Every structure is written in structure tokens, then in C-alpha cells.
Amino acid sequence: MTELLRLDRQLLDRFLLAVEERFPRKTFGYFLADEPDGKPTDFIFFEDNVRDDWRAEFIKYGQYFIDHDDAGFLATPEESWRVARHIRDAGLHEVGVFHSHQRHPGLLATVDVDLHPSPQLWHLLIVLRNLKYPQVRAFSVADGGRVAEMEIDIIDERGRTLDHV
User: Fold this and answer.
1) What is the distance of C-alpha 127 from the center of its chain?
2) CA atoms within 13 A on the CB side of 34
3) What is the C-alpha radius of gyration for the chain, rounded to an integer number of angstroms?
4) Which of 3, 63, 94, 147 is the most buried (most CB within 10 A)?
């Protein structure tokens, strides 16, 4: 997996707007591409969050999960199946996962690393502590839980770098 993530400006803007419209609801899902390990072209949200059904598991990660009922997320098996089927039927591939933070800084917590679905996927955080200035950070998560921050290039439709995060 590359340590450089290239995101189209239009995709990022559409993503940021969709996440902000859902605020204060926790947002999580996948970035999708036309080919494995390809440049993301779309994203999909999970709608159901059954975190409360797994509250005891989340509490093992600390007081934060006791103090904040909206901390943590977990999709239902049924929705996970529907999302996987949609991705397959659309001929797309999961290339990254994402989730939002409302209070927390843009760092992957131990729980994020432990529940990260695959070392083939990068992990993008969108921090909404200030809605006017959302922060975006991306990380690779290797087998064994090794985390590395990825650089993000924001590109135009021709692939030219507009901004570097």
C-alpha cells in the first residue's frame, strides 16, 4: 500500500459535505475504487450503528466510551452484507475506510486499530470539532497494528496536485 493517498477535489468536497450534513451523527463507511488499490472514486456510508449492543466491549477501551454514548461504531451484520453486495454488484472495490470524530483529535485510537478491517485498506479520519474547518488525516494500518500517517494529495480532474495535506 502506498504511503501517499491521492483524492480528487470533487470527491473530497462531496464527502465533506455529506459528512457535515449528517453531523452530529457518527459517520463511518468505505471509500471505493474502480479497481483494487485504485484511486477512490466514491464512498458509501453505513446507516445502522449497533455500538450499544456491544457497549461492554467498547467500555474495555476506557472511560471515554462510558462518558460518551456516541463514541464507537459498529454496523449490523445485515447492513454489512447489503453494503458488500452493493459494492460487488457495482463492480467496485473497497480501498479505504473512514469514520468521523466529533470531539477527539485526528488520531487512530487503539480501538480503531484493533477493529481496522484489513491492512489492504487505508483509514481516513474526518475530525469535526470545528465544522467550519474539518480536519482530514489518513493512516495505513499494517498487520500487527503498526500505524503510519499517510500524506494526502488533493488533485484536480487531470490528476494535478492542488493541495498537499
Assistant:
1) 11
2) 2
3) 15
4) 94
In 3-state terms, what secondary structure has residue 118? coil
Instruction: Tell the burial category of 22 from Cβ atoms under 10 Å away from its Cβ (0-12, 13-18, 19+).
Output: middle
Q: Which residues share a beta bridge with 135?
A: 127
Q: Which amino acid is at 74?
A: L
HSE-up of 127 (CA within 13 Å, CB side)?
13
Q: CA-to-CA distance for 75 and 73, rounded, in angstroms?
A: 7
The answer for residues whose C-beta is within 8 angstroms of residue 120's C-beta and 6 or more apart is 1, 36, 37
The third-level CATH classification (topology) of the domain covering 4-164 is Cytidine Deaminase; domain 2 (3.40.140)
Query: For 87-125, what is each residue's pLDDT tens digit?
Result: 999 999 999 999 998 877 788 888 788 877 898 999 999
What percentage of residues in the chain have a pLDDT greater than 70?
87
CB 36 within 8 A of CB 95: yes
Sequence-distant (≥ 6) Cβ neighbours of residue 124 within 8 angstroms: 5, 31, 96, 97, 98, 136, 137, 138, 139
∠ CA 132-135-140, rounded to 5°: 160
